[in-house]
């Protein structure tokens, strides 16, 4: 139960991203680089955030409102960062397009752009899973397990892996939504992403109540599925639009 | 539809990053598996701690002074050895150097590798008798020693042994005490910077000497030669290439891929200095192509030889030949169709090829990036010290491992970018090691309380 359990937790949190990586990302070197740089960006954002909160840590575990402030500031910071990420991506897209013109290859297809967005999102998601879940999993590979008092029905590692999976999904696909929203200038999509992120993050506050994780986790998964559905609908719409339209350029 | 530029950008970078990642991953695994819960059990004595043996009870000043001394001595030793190598190379003792490299590979694989295998066997209680183990180890080391500078060895095997050597030495170095490791890494990064970039630096001399003689460096270097891409990386696109040849819609991909392949073949070991095609002026493409066709019997024999020696395992000579032939026909057809874009394409391809020629490499035990004819080369020292950093981070926590890994990889990426700008040998250690160390301490001191505090309360965002 030791190594097997540890691996199980890892795969629970990262299994879907792993398969995404193997089947979509790994074939195209550029997407791998995108994943790496987006992971790095997330790590840097986390370091900056923790540097800002360093003075106030460790938080008292009795009151929930400091955590609420922490979550709100963190999500806000990361969403601002996403806008910068988009700007950087925009420049990159121009460079890629001019490069494609120079080698007289076709410019980036719509699917290419979406794949870049997906890779960026996957980087964020993987970084989240790695730092919030995987890095705490080391004890799970040894004997025994660990429970937190507030969520006594499941081992702590299992809970965090499950929550992580939801967040990985949200991060991955909300990046696709956000990039598309920025590209189209679609205000509702632009607001949808931070809203989902914020709501999902604040739903982890429910875990603060004793036994709250049984309520909080389904709610987080509801948000994850909502993101997935929205992303799927949007991608489908874009693809059918471009297919029905005669190919320009 | 599939021929977007996403697939062609960054192949070289990934070709270097993936072995480095594999090396680091295995070192971390080794550190976790083999030496768990045994702090300060064995203090090893190597060249890296000649002066001062760190013990956990020493005061901080003692540790700092001692480790600084250690690092200084180690760097001096390394630079002496490198200067000696330069001298030997200058006076054309190339064979001596090669055999010395083989010998040291043999010793490292046999002794250090042997002891690591032994501890793995002990840890997992693998039932194996000593005679079998000895025979296996002997075979393993001999193949490793031979793979170094021989021509007949598949490049895949050579690359594998390079990574393995890196892993073994790095795993050995992770047994160094903590302070010594950190100062050593910093000192080596500085040394690397000086040795490669400063005028009169030993590695710079070595690289320039090798370039002026148009020889391969007699050093332990990982080559991500494009031939491996052709076999591994392009393995997937080979089918696409062949099938794409029948449809005229994806014409534009073909010339690039196979002019690329043409270059790769020509640039391979023995005759890379004669790669006039890849570096020459391409003013008149059809003529060039005709020339290509005319010389093809000759080149074909070359190819045959090379594909027997450099194509790895399942890629038989016959297949390569047939594919080449098909490519040639294919190219012929395209030229008649559209000549002018092809000119651009090939010229650009050549530009890129040249840019790719600025390369990464190293002096024997030390580390840097250097220039050679094809593919990016990374010194074995880079592998080792990246992995030492990550392995050291692994002794603290997994979080620091990830942070260090990202720091090192992004540093490597920056170095490779610089390489394409500067087009000369560059040190690979400084940027990566600096970033790695910064991320390590940021993570350990700043980030960990934050992340652990939030996530043990099941708060995430």
From TrEMBL, chain A:
<keyword id="KW-0812">Transmembrane</keyword>
<feature type="transmembrane region" description="Helical">
    <location>
        <begin position="116"/>
        <end position="137"/>
    </location>
</feature>
<feature type="transmembrane region" description="Helical">
    <location>
        <begin position="64"/>
        <end position="85"/>
    </location>
</feature>
<dbReference type="GO" id="GO:0016020">
    <property type="term" value="C:membrane"/>
</dbReference>
<comment type="similarity">
    <text>Belongs to the APH-1 family.</text>
</comment>
<feature type="transmembrane region" description="Helical">
    <location>
        <begin position="157"/>
        <end position="179"/>
    </location>
</feature>
<feature type="transmembrane region" description="Helical">
    <location>
        <begin position="30"/>
        <end position="52"/>
    </location>
</feature>
<feature type="transmembrane region" description="Helical">
    <location>
        <begin position="215"/>
        <end position="236"/>
    </location>
</feature>
<dbReference type="InterPro" id="IPR009294">
    <property type="entry name" value="Aph-1"/>
</dbReference>
<dbReference type="GO" id="GO:0016485">
    <property type="term" value="P:protein processing"/>
</dbReference>
<protein>
    <recommendedName>
        <fullName>Gamma-secretase subunit APH1-like</fullName>
    </recommendedName>
</protein>
<keyword id="KW-1133">Transmembrane helix</keyword>
<feature type="transmembrane region" description="Helical">
    <location>
        <begin position="6"/>
        <end position="25"/>
    </location>
</feature>
<feature type="transmembrane region" description="Helical">
    <location>
        <begin position="191"/>
        <end position="209"/>
    </location>
</feature>
<keyword id="KW-0472">Membrane</keyword>
<keyword id="KW-0914">Notch signaling pathway</keyword>
<dbReference type="Pfam" id="PF06105">
    <property type="entry name" value="Aph-1"/>
</dbReference>
<dbReference type="GO" id="GO:0007219">
    <property type="term" value="P:Notch signaling pathway"/>
</dbReference>
Automatic annotation (TrEMBL), chain B:
<keyword id="KW-0645">Protease</keyword>
<dbReference type="GO" id="GO:0000139">
    <property type="term" value="C:Golgi membrane"/>
</dbReference>
<feature type="region of interest" description="Disordered">
    <location>
        <begin position="261"/>
        <end position="284"/>
    </location>
</feature>
<dbReference type="GO" id="GO:0042500">
    <property type="term" value="F:aspartic endopeptidase activity, intramembrane cleaving"/>
</dbReference>
<dbReference type="GO" id="GO:0007219">
    <property type="term" value="P:Notch signaling pathway"/>
</dbReference>
<feature type="transmembrane region" description="Helical">
    <location>
        <begin position="103"/>
        <end position="125"/>
    </location>
</feature>
<keyword id="KW-0914">Notch signaling pathway</keyword>
<dbReference type="GO" id="GO:0070765">
    <property type="term" value="C:gamma-secretase complex"/>
</dbReference>
<feature type="compositionally biased region" description="Polar residues">
    <location>
        <begin position="261"/>
        <end position="278"/>
    </location>
</feature>
<dbReference type="InterPro" id="IPR006639">
    <property type="entry name" value="Preselin/SPP"/>
</dbReference>
<keyword id="KW-0256">Endoplasmic reticulum</keyword>
<dbReference type="GO" id="GO:0006509">
    <property type="term" value="P:membrane protein ectodomain proteolysis"/>
</dbReference>
<dbReference type="GO" id="GO:0005798">
    <property type="term" value="C:Golgi-associated vesicle"/>
</dbReference>
<feature type="transmembrane region" description="Helical">
    <location>
        <begin position="131"/>
        <end position="149"/>
    </location>
</feature>
<dbReference type="GO" id="GO:0016485">
    <property type="term" value="P:protein processing"/>
</dbReference>
<dbReference type="GO" id="GO:0005789">
    <property type="term" value="C:endoplasmic reticulum membrane"/>
</dbReference>
<keyword id="KW-0378">Hydrolase</keyword>
<keyword id="KW-0333">Golgi apparatus</keyword>
<dbReference type="Pfam" id="PF01080">
    <property type="entry name" value="Presenilin"/>
</dbReference>
<comment type="similarity">
    <text>Belongs to the peptidase A22A family.</text>
</comment>
<dbReference type="InterPro" id="IPR001108">
    <property type="entry name" value="Peptidase_A22A"/>
</dbReference>
<comment type="function">
    <text>Probable subunit of the gamma-secretase complex, an endoprotease complex that catalyzes the intramembrane cleavage of integral membrane proteins such as Notch receptors.</text>
</comment>
């Amino acid at each position: 139960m030791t190594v097997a359990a540890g691996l199980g937790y890892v795969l629970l949190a990262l299994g879907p991203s792993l398969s995404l990586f193997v089947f979509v990302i790994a074939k195209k070197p550029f997407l791998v680089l995108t994943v790496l740089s987006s992971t790095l960006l997330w790590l840097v954002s986390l370091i900056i955030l923790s540097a800002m909160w360093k003075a106030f840590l460790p938080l008292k575990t009795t009151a929930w409102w400091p955590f609420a402030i922490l979550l709100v500031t963190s999500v806000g910071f990361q969403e601002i960062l996403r806008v910068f990420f988009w700007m950087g991506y925009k420049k990159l897209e121009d460079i890629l397009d001019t490069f494609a013109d120079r080698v007289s290859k076709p410019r980036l297809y719509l699917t290419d752009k979406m794949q870049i967005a997906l890779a960026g999102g996957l980087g964020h998601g993987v970084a989240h899973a790695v730092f919030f879940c995987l890095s705490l999993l080391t004890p799970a590979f040894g004997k025994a397990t660990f429970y937190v008092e507030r969520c006594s029905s499941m081992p702590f590692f299992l809970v965090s892996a499950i929550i992580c999976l939801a967040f990985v999904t949200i991060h991955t696909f909300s990046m696709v939504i956000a990039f598309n929203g920025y590209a189209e200038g679609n205000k509702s999509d632009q607001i949808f992403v931070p809203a989902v992120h914020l709501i999902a993050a604040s739903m982890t506050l429910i875990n603060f109540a004793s036994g709250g994780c049984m309520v909080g986790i389904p709610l987080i998964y509801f948000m994850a599925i909502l993101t997935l559905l929205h992303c799927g609908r949007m991608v489908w719409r874009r693809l059918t639009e471009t297919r029905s339209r005669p190919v320009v350029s | 539809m599939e021929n977007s530029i996403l697939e062609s950008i960054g192949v070289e970078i990934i070709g270097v990053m993936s072995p480095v990642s594999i090396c680091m991953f295995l070192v971390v695994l080794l550190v976790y598996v083999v030496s768990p819960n045994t702090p300060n059990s064995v203090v090893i004595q190597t060249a890296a701690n000649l002066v001062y043996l760190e013990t956990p009870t020493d005061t901080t000043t003692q540790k700092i002074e001692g480790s600084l001394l250690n690092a200084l001595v180690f760097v001096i030793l390394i630079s002496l050895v490198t200067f000696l190598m330069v001298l030997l190379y200058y006076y054309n003792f190339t064979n001596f150097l090669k055999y010395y490299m083989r010998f040291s590979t043999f010793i490292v694989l046999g002794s250090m590798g042997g002891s690591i295998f032994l501890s793995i066997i002990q840890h997992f209680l693998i039932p194996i008798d000593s005679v079998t183990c000895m025979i296996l180890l002997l075979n393993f080391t001999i193949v490793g020693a031979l793979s170094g500078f021989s021509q007949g060895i598949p490049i895949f095997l050579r690359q594998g042994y390079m990574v393995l050597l890196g892993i073994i030495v790095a795993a050995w170095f992770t047994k160094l005490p903590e302070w010594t490791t950190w100062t050593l890494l910093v000192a080596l990064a500085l040394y690397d910077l000086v040795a490669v970039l400063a005028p009169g630096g030993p590695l710079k001399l070595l690289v320039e000497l090798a370039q002026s003689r148009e020889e391969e460096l007699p050093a332990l270097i990982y080559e991500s030669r494009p031939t491996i891409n052709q076999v591994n990386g392009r393995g997937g696109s080979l089918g696409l290439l062949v099938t794409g040849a029948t449809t005229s819609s994806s014409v534009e991909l073909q010339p690039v891929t196979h002019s690329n392949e043409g270059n790769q073949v020509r640039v391979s070991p023995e005759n890379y200095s004669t790669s006039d095609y890849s570096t020459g002026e391409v003013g008149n493409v059809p003529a060039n192509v005709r020339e290509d066709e005319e010389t093809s019997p000759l080149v074909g024999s070359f190819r045959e030889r090379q594909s027997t020696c450099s194509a790895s395992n399942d890629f038989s000579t016959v297949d390569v030949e047939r594919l080449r032939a098909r490519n040639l026909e294919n190219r012929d057809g395209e030229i008649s169709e559209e000549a002018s874009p092809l000119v651009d394409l090939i010229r650009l391809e050549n530009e890129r090829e040249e840019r790719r020629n600025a390369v990464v490499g190293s002096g024997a035990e030390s580390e840097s990036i250097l220039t050679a004819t094809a593919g990016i080369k990374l010194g074995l020292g880079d592998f080792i010290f990246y992995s030492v950093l990550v392995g050291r981070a692994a002794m603290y926590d997994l979080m620091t491992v990830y942070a260090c890994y990202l720091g090192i990889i992004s540093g490597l990426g920056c170095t490779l970018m610089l390489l394409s700008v500067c087009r000369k040998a560059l040190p690979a250690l400084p940027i990566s090691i600096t970033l790695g160390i910064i991320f390590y301490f940021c993570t350990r001191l700043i980030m960990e309380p934050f992340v652990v505090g939030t996530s043990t309360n099941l708060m995430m965002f």
